[in-house]
Amino acid sequence: MTRKIRLGAFLPGSGQHIAAWRHPDQPADGATSFAFHAELAREAERGLFDAYFLADGLAVAFGGSTEGGNAKVAGFEPVTLFAALAPLTRNLGFIATASTTYEEPYNTARKFASLDLISDGRAGWNVVTTATEAAARNFNLDRQLPHADRYKRAAEHVEVVRKLWDSFEDDAFIRDKDSGVFYHPERVHHADHAGEHFKVKGPLNVSRSPQGHPVIVQAGQSDDGRGLAAATAEVIFTAHQRLDTAQEFYRDIKARARGLGRDPGHILIMPGVSPFVGRSEAEAREKYDRLTSLILEEDGIALIKGLTGGSLDLTGHDLDGPLPELEHTEGNQSRQALIRQIADENGFTIRQLYQWVASARGHFTVVGTPVQIADTLQEWFENEGADGFNILPPWLPAGLTDFVDLVIPELQRRGLFRTEYEGRTLRQNLGLPYPVNRHAAARAALQAAE
Amino acid sequence: MTRKIRLGAFLPGSGQHIAAWRHPDQPADGATSFAFHAELAREAERGLFDAYFLADGLAVAFGGSTEGGNAKVAGFEPVTLFAALAPLTRNLGFIATASTTYEEPYNTARKFASLDLISDGRAGWNVVTTATEAAARNFNLDRQLPHADRYKRAAEHVEVVRKLWDSFEDDAFIRDKDSGVFYHPERVHHADHAGEHFKVKGPLNVSRSPQGHPVIVQAGQSDDGRGLAAATAEVIFTAHQRLDTAQEFYRDIKARARGLGRDPGHILIMPGVSPFVGRSEAEAREKYDRLTSLILEEDGIALIKGLTGGSLDLTGHDLDGPLPELEHTEGNQSRQALIRQIADENGFTIRQLYQWVASARGHFTVVGTPVQIADTLQEWFENEGADGFNILPPWLPAGLTDFVDLVIPELQRRGLFRTEYEGRTLRQNLGLPYPVNRHAAARAALQAAE
Description:
Chain A contains 15 helices and 13 strands. By secondary structure, the first copy, chain A, is of the alpha/beta class.
């Protein structure tokens, strides 16, 4: 099978660009409209995307001085939303973000296994540690836990969830009405986990789901984050502005995975790309400028503050001057470094910085014709920069529709993207293996040795 | 408006009777089948039920010695399941159980507000403290917290969730594209909660939902449970075998509510009823005997153990002898007392006890014609025994279909039950008031005083 580009669709109902909601085509209430999310899911499925992706923050992303300009102030809990979208779609995967710091593994395992059952095998879990002070204050803390502690807890949380997803072997259910045997007691297992952060007996009270394990997704960029991703992720969402940094990341992750005995082909690296697609370059540029013109100054400042976990507050600084030095905090370190890099490399003022970041919030913005955009994606895909991309349409639904109608056909013409879904589950469409139940594997190994 | 009977439908996909899954009409895989739950939801809506109700346990209910006979070994996380059923229905409410002991209020508030948005105002939260040792061991504990502590935490958990549901006033969103003002900052509020168990800053990152607050439901029977219910519940699910105990409960709760300054008409008391409906008495009895004959001895013993929070293990006792003394534990105290009462009043052996309990797991079993069953419901409804009922069909879907086709029309003929849905939201159908946002109320009071 020829290697194909994998595509995720990053579709908060509010649009990705900070000023999207002010665009005439974008429903201003999109973030809180279930009907609009259902429309987006159907549109992504029409485009044969692998998955609909939702981030999650566990706090209102107020920023510093928004004065009410933030369309992301309220949304949906992602798993609840995706469960409702599942019966309205047939093939689209659903990758929901959930926190290892502020949820318990038994609850995490249950809700994703339930989503996987409901969607008949289309669930994915984007594992995050949740890096904001605002979230910590919603969960009994005054300040968030140190970065390294969050990552240690995350690794153990994922381990417990995976143990719980192996509670039932694939053939645990017998359901024989005559004998009254519903399940095979020896094929149902306790997790019996006792670690530094969690003590979980099990078994899970949700049966093994169609994918065995929902797909594990991560977005860590720091050293801790890369280590966790290389050890446990099957899809990695990442943010790069240039092919060379994407390649460095790609090679590092694949090497780490190989070092841990994993098949590097089973970790798909998908940078974020925010596309402005025009039938001509001028039309694409016009779409970009249109949205830039809609950004209010205070919203630009709030955006930078929000992206850096609340640590970089530029209120009162000269917007047409350079970015001041950052101080070290427990906020999102990889985002802080990325923001600094973008400003330095482009010689941006604060205003230029937020205008650029506003379009994709740290991700790669491409502005051009379908051929130009396909050229860029192809270059990254064929040169160890990406296995696929998370597409972040700047505004909705038009930004998504442009991509589906114009870029997808160009990728298909080049043989780089599917023309129909290959499988039933997200795992099958992504070309990822079915995870053999650990207890079944152990028994098989024992029997082979006898 | 004439007072009408309210009806909830208690529809675990496995059926309520312990041996339901062995019945030829019951899909053996119903508990883990999303398609079957969708069929049940549509059937309940055809019957004009107020709500679909799901219990939840946070552990596998193994019981003592099931040997694989328990069809409730695995199911769905209720909110995830209901979110998926919401777009497939229009009027049916969804009351999902969630634990105040093993979830965080920020997460609870989010998932129910999301469900309320997705269902356009049809969500309810059945507040439970989760009374099993097995659940405690899935959440980092060796033993569960004492009963009184769980209830104190529950009261505070509900308080925090309600504060969070008032984060956004009804008119908080402006979404004015011209000015760039998305929301009115003074109409968005922090919870600023700091109590004995929780410290939660807020605001919630989900907007105010169609019902303002999803409907609060409880099922506490102990003194602590009744106190919490009288203070905070809008619907109370309860278990009674006789009208006189139902009346004692009904009058006690209404008096407690009145004492707390609440309108007793805004607390609906709904005992559970498990109906075997036949066109003749003989046909109804035949349906009952059919299911009783399918109970295995070890499953009967496991049932009693499970219902009493694991504290009453009858393994090794003479099944045709009397119930031994119960020892005091931190398990479900009200259930222990109820089991004892059923055995004593009927002079049941252990076998007779589990056969009786197996049909409705502690709830009231009625066996008869539509007229007989309607007579009983009417008697309770008109004599301070009930404001409505939770119907627990013994097996599915036939037990539900019998009730919809035979009993509902009899209740409608008597003018006791709706012939179409009155409102759009669960709250409207139940005749419960819309909860005014506390911040809007405070401002209105201030303005009135000026």
